[in-house]
């Protein structure tokens, strides 16, 4: 790859020979230009890596990634398998209990009794209102009788 193409990849459109710091630049400015040249050199060095070096780097990166994350993934996957097995056991137990409840002989009687609960509840509420009404009348009569006695 030519130097001109490398400079284009690095974002520098000038040829490297043309990048010359003028003598009037401050120390900070010349250091910044030097840093930019170092970055361009690093990119140039990276571009000149051969396939064997790239393959080695990728292999090293892959091995490091596997050594870091594979044990954790295996641990999590074993925990998930254990969790799914325990959930399956619980599901089977619940299904068995539901079947037992459905097969009870007196279940229909309970259903009939509980279906009448709203009716009984309304009757109780109505009786409570009547009792409250009677109690209010009694208290008024008592006050009236007390007034008559005085």
Label this structure with key terms.
single chain; 5 helices; mainly alpha; elongated; 150 residues
Descriptive overview:
The longest helix is centred in the middle third of the chain and has 52 residues, at 51-102. Mean pLDDT is 79; it is low at 5-10 and 12-23. This protein is mostly helical and 150 residues long. Helix 1 (3-9) packs across helix 2. It contains five helices and no strands.
Q: How is the secondary structure organized here?
A:
Blueprint: H1 3-9, H2 27-47, H3 51-102, H4 107-115, H5 117-149
Strand content: under 5%
> How would you classify the helix and strand content by structural class?
mainly alpha
Q: What separation lies between the terminal Cα atoms?
A: 123 Å
Q: What's the count of strands? A: 0
Task: Give helix % range.
Answer: over 70%
Mean pLDDT: 79
Number of helical regions = 5
Largest sheet, in brief, is: none
Structural shape: elongated
Order of helices and strands: HHHHH
Low-confidence blocks of residues: 5-10, 12-23
Whole-angstrom Rg: 45 Å
Concise summary:
The protein is mostly helical. Helix content is 81%, strand content 0%.
């Amino acid at each position: 790859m030519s130097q001109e193409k490398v400079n284009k990849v690095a974002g520098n459109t000038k040829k490297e020979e043309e990048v010359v710091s003028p003598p009037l630049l401050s120390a900070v400015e010349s250091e910044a230009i030097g840093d930019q040249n170092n970055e361009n050199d690093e990119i140039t060095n990276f571009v000149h890596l051969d396939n064997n070096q790239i393959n080695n780097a990728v292999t090293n990166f892959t091995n490091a990634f596997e050594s870091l994350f594979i044990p954790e993934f295996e641990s999590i996957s074993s925990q998930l398998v254990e969790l799914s097995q325990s959930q399956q056991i619980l599901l089977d137990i619940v299904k068995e209990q539901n079947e037992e409840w459905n097969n009870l002989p007196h279940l229909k009687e309970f259903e009939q009794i509980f279906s009448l609960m709203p009716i009984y509840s309304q009757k109780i509420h109505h009786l409570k209102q009547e009792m409250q009404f009677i109690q209010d009348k009694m208290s008024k009569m008592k006050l009236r009788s007390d007034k008559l006695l005085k």
